[in-house]
Amino acid sequence: MAALSLCVAGDLTAQVKEADYYELINYPATDDNNLKLEICSMTMLKDGNLMVGTRLGDVFYVEHPYDPAKAKFTKFAHGLNHPLGMEEFDGAIYLAQRGELTRLRDTNGDHKADEFETVSDEWAISGNYHEFNFGPRLDQDGYMWVTLNKPFGKEPYGRAPWRGFAVRIHPKTGEMQPMCAGLRSPAGVEVSPWGDVFYTDNQGEWCNASKLAHLEYGDFHGHPHGLDPSRKVVGKPFSEIPNPESGTWMKDLKKTVPQWKMPTMWFPYDKMGKSPSGLKWDVTKGKFGPFKEQLFVGDQHHSWLMRCDLEKVKGHWQGACFLFREGFQSGILRMAYGKDGSMFVGMSNAGWGSRGNKSRGLQRLKWTGKVPFEIHTMRARSDGFELTFTMPVDAKAAADVANYKGESYTYQLRSAYGGPEDDKKSFNVTKAIVGKDGKSVRLILDSMRAGYVHELHLSGINAQSGTELLHNAAYYTLVNIPD
After folding, report:
1. Are 348 and 401 contained in the same domain?
2. Side-chain half-sphere exposure of 184, counting CA atoms within 13 A
3. What are the tens digits of pLDDT across the range 58-117?
4. Each residue of 247-285: pLDDT tens digit?
5. CA–CA dist 359, 356 (Å, integer)
6. Helix or strand or coil: residue 50?
7. How far is it, in rounded angstroms, from Cα 59 to Cα 41?
8. Which of 124, 394, 446, 479 is deepest in the core (most CB within 10 A)?
9. What whole-number distance in Å separates Cα of residue 98 and Cα of residue 393?
């Protein structure tokens, strides 16, 4: 796939500048060793309070969540097995723990669960530590989606059926439907505002770059180890998916594996994090800043948030990602928007480590009201890309083609753990046309390659006001080139 990248991450100076626009609010209670808030699941409740679940199996009801000094953490449930997501539905809390989808109810209103029910335990577990489950997320048909992590290696743990699948479950009957195969470590699943379901996956074996992908019935996402044990119980269409050949270019894989689904977006390794996790669309109607309806993705290792701009081209979702906010205190796993439009962020280094200097935490990200000068959108055109910005650009600098540099690259699907940016080729911007509104720039390129990430770097481009570009790199995954 193609990706465009504009900026260098991990800069402390950049973090300071980011804080002018998005303030990080700390919760001292997360330092309490009695709480141990290694947050790996989170939801904003209909009553306006927050609920969080921890890696150690506790769930807390959080009253007064907007005031760190007054926030009260009441243990709602305990003894669960690594709940990595939760959803409030029909007066209950649904959460995916390692062995099942569970429904919790508080029947007497004391903010403590007193009813625990198994909704579905159709999938198998073999005892491998890597058999995490993520979700649930309620779709527009009334089903809950859960993504099932795949253990390392094919044997002996590869025998457990349904590992590496996305499934959906009826919350009332517990009926489970397999929906997609070939997932590796699908750490986030979310339903978009328009009803489509997307997930994030972590780089590893048979997943040679981290990604965001669209989930539709019958899709295959590249990891074959879950196919063999599941073929015996699932039937068509998954029983008909052929095993991919290691070393195949992902852009060409559909020729031999018709069910293969190209990602929506690659997250180039290290440049855009190492372990993408939770994802949230901004549906705050402007309360979170100028990026209404765009997607935000957390990264567990880099302890930062990315911003994603999606578009559908020839029936396939694709788009660009940008660095958004660094400097969180631990690895980000889950996010939830508050009623005021701020974002609650739950964190844990989960034993893997993270750039954040703490092992766990809860923080809140709040827009200060100041608009940063950023690339707002990046959209593919037949001969290049069109950038829009959050404020008018310096027209002379934006029209200078010397201020743009880029290269494109793609990936192979390989059995090895991870893979390099491959088949690299620089491209040149031959013309940069500033729009009449002063906020858009049309870039004409000397070459474009479908199935490649186009990484673009900007330099020397400021706003008309003189404000510097906060993040100067963009990565566009060009699956299809528009006509």
Report:
1. no
2. 28
3. 999 999 999 999 999 999 999 999 999 999 999 999 999 998 999 999 999 999 999 999
4. 999 999 999 999 999 999 999 999 999 999 999 999 999
5. 8
6. strand
7. 9
8. 479
9. 50
Query: For residue 227, what are the CA distances in angstroms to 80, 149, 207, 346, 441?
Result: 29, 13, 15, 33, 46
Closest among 23, 27, 21 to 42, alpha carbons compared? 27
Counting DSSP H helices and E strands in the chain, the numbers are 3, 35
**For the purposes of burial, counting CB atoms within 10 Å of the CB of 28, is it exposed (0-12), middle (13-18) or buried (19 or more)?**
exposed
> Which region, left, alpha or beta, applies to residue 64 given φ > 0 means left and ψ of -120 to 50 means alpha?
left
HEC string for 73-106? EEEEECCCCCCCCEEEECCEEEEEECCEEEEEEC
Whose structure tokens read 């039937």? 235
Which tokens go with 472? 């100067």
**Where in the sequence is the domain holding 323, given as residue range(s)?**
23-367
Q: Cα separation of 264 and 321, whole Å?
A: 11
Verify that 134 and 244 share a domain, yes or no. yes
Give the Cα-Cα-Cα angle 444, 449, 453 (nearest 5 degrees): 95
Q: Which residue type is seen at 1?
A: M
Alpha carbons 127 and 133: distance in angstroms, whole number:
13
Same domain assignment for residues 206 and 290: yes
Euclidean distance between CA atoms 1 and 24, whole angstroms: 34
CA–CA separation, 184 and 196 (whole Å): 20
User: What token pair was written down for 24?
Assistant: 């990080």
**In the listed set 334, 367, 400, which residue is the last one of a domain according to the structure?**
367
Q: Give the pLDDT confidence of 406-443 residue by residue, as tens digits.
A: 999 999 999 999 999 999 999 999 999 999 999 999 99
Please state which of the ranges 94-98, 122-126, 300-304 shows the lowest mean pLDDT.
122-126
Pair 97, 183 in one domain: yes
Q: How many domains are contained in the chain?
A: 2
